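SEQUENCE-TO-STRUCTURE ENTRY
===========================
What this section holds: a protein sequence and its matching fold, both as plain text.
Tokens: labelled as protein backbone structure tokens, with as many entries as the chain has residues.
Question of interest: how does this chain fold, as expressed in backbone structure tokens?
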Amino acid sequence: MALFGPSEKDLKQTAKKEFERAAALTGDSRKENAYRMRIALRARGHIDKLFVEAASKVAEYSDVVMLNISQGKKSPEPPKAGQYMKLMTASGEVWSFLPEEYADLVFKYGMQYQGVQISGATAINNVQKISNAVGMELKIENSLIALEFLRQNLADEGIDVDAEIAALDDNESDDLL
């Protein structure tokens, strides 16, 4: 324990234990459902924030790659997803944990979206599937809507996101996870 409270390492370990505890719960009591939902909401916040982080890091990474290429240097390693993330909630800061396989996929889709390799609807569809998988792992009853901010931005641009996602589901195989 640090001098003025738990260390960052301790907080991260606690976040992971909380996620694992929520996933391991088997009961259906109101208390257990509330706990699972609290952890699921953290995971959704983590997913959204991770997607944005990936989009911002891809621009920085692209700049460094181009600079290195122009100088004849080796390209750096691409940025990596974070399994742990500090989130702001109504009650203050909390740490969230997201298993690596989910974090890596969200980060990948954020980078691909920013790099214009995939459309907004494709990014939303793919990340929603990850959010649904997290919800299933945590055994929550209703799926949590991921990337609501991107859905709204696209809708503000006049894009019918639901129609585009429906078209994707009709045309693509479901081999993301």
